[in-house]
TrEMBL record:
PANTHER family: COLANIC BIOSYNTHESIS UDP-GLUCOSE LIPID CARRIER TRANSFERASE, UNDECAPRENYL-PHOSPHATE N-ACETYLGALACTOSAMINYL 1-PHOSPHATE TRANSFERASE-RELATED
Similarity section: Belongs to the bacterial sugar transferase family.
UniProt membrane topology term: Multi-pass membrane protein
Keyword Transmembrane helix: yes
One Pfam family hit: Bac_transf
High-level lineage: Bacteria, Pseudomonadati, Pseudomonadota, Gammaproteobacteria, Alteromonadales
Source species: Alteromonas arenosi
Top-rank taxon: Bacteria
Protein name, UniProt field: TIGR03013 family PEP-CTERM/XrtA system glycosyltransferase
């Protein structure tokens, strides 16, 4: 029986492989038709193969950068089409620069690249349409059953209501367990009244159950350990609710955490030697590369802020603010000023959506994260990394530590310019929002790795391109 680990990524993997084959085939077809119509001479086989591989590889990377392979992409079909166009526009640029400036021997006929890109776009639009419409690539979903129908189990009903949240599994139903708080429990989901005893195994076999999620409110004296033991020996996965939610949602449900789960669960490892040793060097190198390309935008932004209200008020275009960094150490963060000079005359306040304190220029630079660019200098100083939880103000941290459990644990890693929470929960302006973002921050602390950092870095391009910043 297949194990459920990483099952939520299976659909994305199948999508990547299928679309890679489609793109490779359509780029070959473009060459075939142009040759058949005598528009271009037949290219060398080696040149054609390299071009096909270059276009395919670039298209996959660009599609990843705009979020097209996100397992739970929250987007309409029109939005998916827009992302496909953006990804192939980036692909066109990359291939054109690569073949034109660096490898001129790979140059094909001027009509080849536009033709290949156009055919690929049309093909992927139709493919995505039928994939979404017919539910393709969703085959082989894990059939799961949840032991418990009380308050803890209801987190699944509340957090995973939509079909997109359940792409990796098929929820057969919830089995009430003695001790469950049914008043605060499952409301709209299917309740299965089956006794969890020796006959439970027969029920599991008849319904092809592949995984049991433990979500009962009271475990002591109510959890059928012998039955679960028997199921586990027969290949049925038994998963704790916290592990299930972490795997399927990419977050840790902080309000359900308990100390023994943290002690015995995988993750929360310290950085490996290579990542730790090269931490500053890699971050400084990336900061230099980004600064090399964005300094003109930074200069233009500074001039616009100055002429907008800086010259009149005598206020600096840069804004310095104290934030909490690694291990609780305070540092001064730098940003382009996006609010009025008197924005905090009454003390520190949470930033809100459509905040009246934000200037006209500030609304634009906040939307596209331009106001964050001066933090590259914080990276040079070693106070921040490219990837990590966003640093918070000490006034708010003092409040959040008291009201949000485990909040201080996010300071176990260096704060960053971009983070896992920003990709999954882009807006936060209250204690409740901070709790939601902490669930993703702790997931990052638990699973921090070079691979995860690269994923966050690439997907941050999506935030910038589509203006999803706050």
């Amino acid at each position: 029986m297949p194990a459920p680990k990483n099952r939520q990524n299976k659909r994305s993997n199948a999508l990547v492989i299928t679309e890679a084959l489609l793109i490779a085939y359509t780029t070959y077809i473009a060459s075939f038709f142009l040759t058949y119509l005598d528009i271009m001479a037949a290219p060398k086989v080696e040149t054609l193969i390299v071009n096909v591989m270059l276009i395919t590889g670039s298209a996959l990377i660009c599609s990843l950068s705009v979020g097209l392979y996100e397992a739970k992409l929250r987007e309409t079909f029109r939005g998916i089409i827009r992302r496909i166009f953006v990804s192939f526009a980036l692909t066109y640029f990359i291939v054109e620069v690569t073949t034109g400036a660096f490898f001129s021997t790979l140059n094909m006929h001027p009509y080849y690249l536009p033709s290949a890109i156009s055919i690929s776009i049309v093909t992927l639009v139709f493919f995505r349409y039928f994939t979404n419409r017919l539910g393709l690539l969703g085959l082989g979903r894990t059939r799961i059953i949840v032991l418990g129908a009380g308050e803890r189990a209801s987190i699944i009903e509340k957090r995973m209501r939509r079909d997109v949240d359940r792409l990796g599994f098929e929820l057969v139903g919830f089995v009430p367990i003695p001790g469950d708080n049914r008043e605060a429990g499952i409301v709209n989901e299917k309740i299965i009244h089956v006794k969890v005893d020796e006959r439970f195994r027969t029920f599991m076999i008849e319904n092809d159950i592949e995984e049991i999620v433990i979500a009962c409110d009271q475990r002591r004296g109510t959890l059928p350990v012998e039955v679960l033991f028997d199921c586990r020996l027969r290949g049925i996965e038994v998963t704790d609710l916290l592990d299930f939610m972490e795997r399927e949602t990419g977050q840790i449900v902080v309000n359900l955490m308990y100390p023994s789960w943290v002690i015995y669960s995988n993750g929360f490892h310290s950085q490996n030697y290579l990542r730790d040793a090269l931490d500053y060097s890699l971050n400084a190198l990336m900061a230099f590369c980004v600064l090399f390309f964005v300094w003109p935008f930074m200069l233009i932004t500074a001039l616009i802020i100055y002429f907008d209200d800086g010259r009149r008020t005598g206020t600096s275009v840069l804004y310095r603010q104290e934030r909490v960094g690694l291990n609780g150490k305070l540092f001064s963060i730098m940003k382009f000023r996006s609010m009025r000079p008197d924005a905090e005359k009454d003390g520190a306040k949470w930033a809100t959506k459509n905040d009246s304190r934000v200037t006209r220029i500030g609304a634009f630079i906040r939307k596209y994260r331009i106001d964050e660019l001066p933090q590259l200098f914080n990276v040079f100083k070693g106070e921040m990394s490219f990837i990590g939880p966003r640093p918070e103000r000490p006034e708010f941290v003092e409040q959040l530590v008291k009201e949000v459990p485990y909040y201080n644990q996010r300071h176990n890693v260096k704060p960053g310019l971009a983070g896992w929470a920003q990709l999954n929960y882009p807006y936060g302006a209250s204690v409740e929002d901070s709790l939601e973002k902490l669930k993703f921050d702790l997931y990052y602390v638990k699973h921090q790795s070079l691979l995860l950092d690269m994923l966050i870095l690439v997907r941050t391009v999506e935030v910038v391109l589509f203006g999803k910043g706050r």
